[in-house]
Amino acid sequence: MKNELRLLAFLVCLALCACQKQKPVAQTIAAPKADVRNEVVPVNDTVYETQYLYSREEEKDRNEQSEFKVGNDVYKAFTESYSLNDSSLVQILPDSIKSKQMSVKKLKCHNHVYNIKLTKNGKLVYEKQFTKLDFLKLDDDGFLKESAPNAPSFRGVTADGKVLFDMWFCLPDSDFGGISFFSTDLKGNLLQLESYSSTGGNGCDGGVETSPDRRYFLSCQKLYGPKGYVFSFGKPDMVKATFLSDTTFVAIYDFVHRSYNKLKGEWEETHDEKANNLIVYHVNGKRLASYRYRGFTNELDYNAPLEIFKDPGVLVLMDTEKEEIHSISLAHSQVSAVYSLSSLTKLTSRSQMPDWQEASMEALGKKYYFYFALDTLKAYHIAKR
After folding, report:
1. In whole angstroms, what is the distance from residue 46 CA to residue 103 CA?
2. Quick one: CA dihedral 34, 38, 44, 45, positive or negative?
3. Superkingdom, according to UniProt (predicted)?
4. Does the pLDDT value for residue 32 go beyond 70?
5. What's the CA gap between 157 and 155, in Å, rounded?
6. pTM above 0.85, yes or no
């Protein structure tokens, strides 16, 4: 009995020692949950698409005929464009959100043919065929590969034999795209392709044109002359550029400042309403005169209602909102005048006065007739439609 009691006491002692040596159980504390936000996670998927096929029935609308007179000579150009529907060009279109690339679209685009037939006084000068591949060797405005077929627009021939064309590279089923000009020599060899404007928003009013003596030509961005001469006068948001004489031209700017509003998450624009934005240049790059003019509009692209009247020798610009007429002398560009329509005589019909010189122009769907006595504007008439 004593032995049993001793054994029991020994077991109890062992149990008590084991309890004292046992470590306390560690408490598991959950890590704080991260702040879950709707962050954009790049997926970098590649999406493949192919442009639809262009129908042959649409091609009748993709041709042009135009002419350019040089003294007694008449140049005529017949142009057309159609698609090869070959899916031979690939345009890479990244898709991003908050500056993080989400996917890449690889769009298979079709090559197009551009045919040109140029004649002088009825005799063939050249007949030539170009494709997008020919143009891509010289320039790519970002729209060229994806653009729909569009016939080149003949713009003239310079004195040193450059044949000028405007080319609209617009997206399919859209007026949005880029505007370029290209030139050839009189054998049809492609010389130059250069993007100078856009369409479908802030596009310049007008196209490539030659000076009256054809020694120079200009776009809305640059003036080109003999022996490779180039004068860059353009800025973003060009309104218009046009020749006034053999040696002068006018450029109209819209000075726009753009800034990103982080709170609204959008871009905002402010326009400089004080600076002189109409500049008269000599072809050597010298500024001859500058004025403030805000009579232009910008619905989809810019439109500046102006006309050059060789007789009486003035540049006339309309501001339909303020109902004002701006007049600038062609011979002396520092000489100008601003007329309020209310200060002029409004005629109910076209004038027959022999001492008045008549000049007409269109603005916002209306045709205006202006009447000058020497170089002073006296009256106007609005024709009925």
Report:
1. 6
2. positive
3. Bacteria
4. no
5. 7
6. no
